[in-house]
Amino acid sequence: MTRQQLSEVIDALTPEMEVQREQVLRARRGHERLVAPGAGAKAKLTSADRVLATVLHMRKLAPMHLLGQLFNTTAMTISRAAKDVRPLLEAHGVHLTASTARFHTPEDVARFLDTDETKIKPAC
């Protein structure tokens, strides 16, 4: 998936994710909002972060705990995001295959992303 494709998917899913979030909050409260949108606790991940974390999870690039570290949150937050976003991705026809690269630590990711062309990258 290219950056442009990811950006297009994020733009397409963001309004649906906001509607989904409002439905979950309404069900939890048991009634409509009593305060204006934007009040209250802020989401731990932005819509773009939620989509990206789900794409990385679906590609099986890293375990949940590493994704949590990379997004400065918990594995449980990443798991909830993936659970919510995956059906939306599938509804939009986004089907991802598992990657052959696997990362287990933040250092593995940094080493893979190192752009120094004079270094030899280890095979993943």
Topology, please?
Layout: H1 3-29, H2 47-58, H3 64-70, H4 75-91, H5 106-113
Helix pairs in contact: 1-2, 1-4, 2-4, 3-4
What do you see in this structure?
This protein has 124 residues and is mostly helical. Helix 2 packs across helix 4 and helix 3 crosses helix 4. It contains 5 helices and no strands. The protein has one domain. The model has no long low-confidence stretch (mean pLDDT 86). The protein starts with a helix and ends in an 11-residue tail after the last helix.
Order of helices and strands: HHHHH
Percent of sequence in beta strands: under 5%
User: How large is the radius of gyration?
Assistant: 17 Å
Poorly predicted sequence stretches spanning 5 or more consecutive residues? none
Helix residue percentage: 55-70%
Morphology call: globular
Biggest pleated-sheet summary: none
Rounded to the nearest angstrom, the distance between the terminal CA atoms is 19 Å
The overall strand count is 0
Mean pLDDT: 86
Structurally, how many domains make up the residues?
1
Q: Count the helices. How many? A: 5
Helix- and strand-based class? mainly alpha
Provide a brief overview of the structure.
This protein has 124 residues and is mainly alpha-helical. It has helices at 3-29, 47-58, 64-70, 75-91, 106-113. It has one domain.
